[in-house]
Design a protein that fits this description.
Shape: globular
CATH superfamily of one domain: NAD(P)-binding Rossmann-like Domain
Distance between the termini: 38 Å
Strand order of the largest sheet: 2-1-3-4-5-10
Helix content: 25-40%
CATH architecture of one domain: 3-Layer(aba) Sandwich
Largest sheet: 6 strands, parallel
Number of strands: 12
Bound molecules: NADPH dihydro-nicotinamide-adenine-dinucleotide phosphate, dtdp-4-keto-L-rhamnose
Number of helices: 9
CATH class of one domain: Alpha Beta
Length: 289
């Protein structure tokens, strides 16, 4: 089986490459190899490779910046995806497209139940809206696809498009002695990219039915609880002030509740276990942060 990973030098892309199963022939493409918003680039690069499966991790996902640059958000997160859909159709390839918990509006906070694949998206910021547009293009134009919703990712590489990840940001701030103020009224499912990557390979190799899947570590917490655990596992002694989202002003509105779970048999280990292993694995390089 030949698989192409788009965004191979990104945070999730690197772990998809690292978790590659033995029998798979993998070609990793970086942004300098392919521009997904350019149809000619998409067709010339991908038709020459003729992959059975294309995994798209590329996105414009600086949540606040997307509010100021909606054209760019839609160009990459929707038009770029349309180009990939067209090339997949032309080669009869499977598209694995990475999406986000931010397609939901957070209204399920009243039930305190995670969102499942059966819940209807209703995004409330430009990033989420553009990602949902990408999902709809995949779902409504293509038959052979997996839409994989992940959330609050952290991995060794850090997100190139976001300038790191929340884990590194918190540790950096703590080590620099900066005051830490973190929202305690926004809840999500923090997810380790290596765990998500392994599950993505399983979906493909086990030939699970095409469709949408939620792939996150088990459980959920507030960003404040997440930050507390990050410091605890890293052995960093710093205090954090819990604040309400109304006191931590951001350009983009965030869903106050976006924990995910799967009703399609996907179950990853609990987020605390994954975080502990991640921090243990990168602890030797933490001093460089
Ligand atoms: N990070 C997170 O917390 C979350 C991310 N997601 C989704 O997961 C996916 C992966 O995120 P993550 O790995 O963290 O992100 P990264 O920014 O680390 O990876 C994305 C990669 O895609 C490349 N890329 C960006 N734009 C283009 C383009 N137009 N054409 C080709 N390549 C491009 C980037 O290259 P370069 O940097 O050189 O431009 C980068 O290597 C995204 O789809 C995102 O929406 C979902 C939930 C949470
Ligand atoms: C850095 C920081 C953030 N926060 C808050 C702001 C926000 O509500 C939350 C996380 O902030 P970030 O800017 O790291 O992440 P944000 O852009 O909100 O995160 C999202 O990224 C996109 C790509 C996704 O798809 C989502 O799954 C999600 O992970 O924590 C604090 O309260 N204190 C802080 O010091």
């Amino acid at each position: 089986m030949k698989v192409v990973v788009i965004g191979a030098s990104g945070q999730l892309g690197q772990d998809i490459v690292n978790a590659k199963p033995g029998l798979v022939k993998l070609v990793g493409l970086t942004h300098s190899d392919i521009e997904i918003t350019d149809k000619d680039s998409v067709f010339s690069v991908l038709t020459s490779l003729e992959p059975d499966v294309i995994i798209n991790t590329a996105a414009f996902h600086k949540t606040d910046l997307c509010e100021d640059e909606p054209e760019k958000a839609f160009f990459i997160n929707a038009v770029g995806v349309k180009n990939l859909v067209e090339v997949c159709k032309s080669m009869d390839s499977i598209l694995v497209h990475i999406s986000t918990d931010y397609v939901f509006d957070g209204a399920k906070i009243t039930e305190k139940e995670p969102y499942t694949e059966e819940d209807l998206p209703n995004p409330i910021n430009i990033y989420g809206i553009s990602k949902y547009a990408g999902e709809l293009i995949v779902k409504n134009y293509l038959d052979k696809y997996y839409i994989v919703r992940v959330a609050s990712l952290y991995g060794k590489a850090g997100a190139s498009g976001k300038g790191g990840n929340f884990v590194y940001t918190i540790l950096k701030k703590a080590k620099a002695g900066e005051p830490l103020r973190v929202v305690d009224d926004i809840f999500m499912s923090p997810t380790y990219t290596l765990d998500a990557a392994r599950e993505i390979w399983k979906l493909i190799l086990e030939e699970r039915p095409f469709g949408t899947y939620h792939v996150t570590n088990l459980g959920y917490c507030s960003w404040y609880e997440f930050a507390k655990k990050i410091l605890e596992y890293a052995g960093v002694d710093a205090s954090i002030e819990p604040v309400k989202h109304t006191e931590f002003k951001t350009k983009a509105k965030r869903p106050l509740w976006s924990p995910l779970k799967s009703v399609k048999g996907i179950e990853l280990r609990p987020w605390e276990e994954a975080l502990k292993e991640f921090i243990g694995g990168v602890s030797t390089q933490l001093w460089k942060l």
